[in-house]
């Protein structure tokens, strides 16, 4: 059974932190959308506009910016990641 949350991650193919974030989300049985910004300037600019961040990964849960790997790992360590992943996206 997958989680209820909509998860989107902006990545680059060579990024070790991106791989670590993907592995963490997989371990949580979370489905997620990957957007590779490595060769796509438009997607990179969209990521920066939405997140305010210039580094990858940039992770969004239910369209809310979470940050990068350190941020999602901190949520996991604090026991908050499961709560976020179990929340369905707002329909408003």
Shape: globular
Estimate percent helicity: 40-55%
Q: What order do the SSEs take from the amino end to the carboxyl end, as H and E? A: EHEHEEHH
Oligomer: single chain
Please give the alpha-carbon distance between the first and last residues: 25 Å
Structure description:
This protein is α+β, with helices and mostly antiparallel strands and 92 residues long. It contains four helices and four strands; from the N terminus they run E-H-E-H-E-E-H-H. The protein has helices at residues 16-27, 41-51, 69-77, 81-86; strands at 7-11, 32-36, 58-61, 64-67. Strands 2-1-3-4 form a four-stranded mixed β-sheet, sandwiched between helices.
Topology diagram in text:
Layout: E1 7-11, H1 16-27, E2 32-36, H2 41-51, E3 58-61, E4 64-67, H3 69-77, H4 81-86
Parallel strand pairs: 1-2
Antiparallel strand pairs: 1-3, 3-4
Helix pairs in contact: 1-3
TL;DR?
This protein has 4 helices and 4 strands; from the N terminus they run βαβαββαα. The chain is α+β, with helices and mostly antiparallel strands and about 90 residues long.
Q: What descriptive keywords fit this protein?
A:
4 helices, 92 residues, 4-stranded mixed β-sheet, alpha+beta
């Amino acid at each position: 059974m997958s989680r209820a949350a909509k998860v989107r991650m902006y990545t680059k193919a060579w990024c070790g932190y991106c791989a670590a974030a993907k592995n963490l989300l997989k371990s949580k049985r979370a489905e997620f959308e990957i957007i590779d910004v490595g060769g796509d300037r438009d997607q990179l600019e969209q990521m920066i506009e939405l997140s305010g961040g210039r580094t990858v990964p940039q992770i969004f849960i239910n369209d809310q910016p979470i940050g990068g790997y350190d941020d999602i790992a901190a949520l996991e360590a604090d026991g908050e990641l499961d709560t976020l992943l179990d929340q369905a996206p707002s329909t408003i």
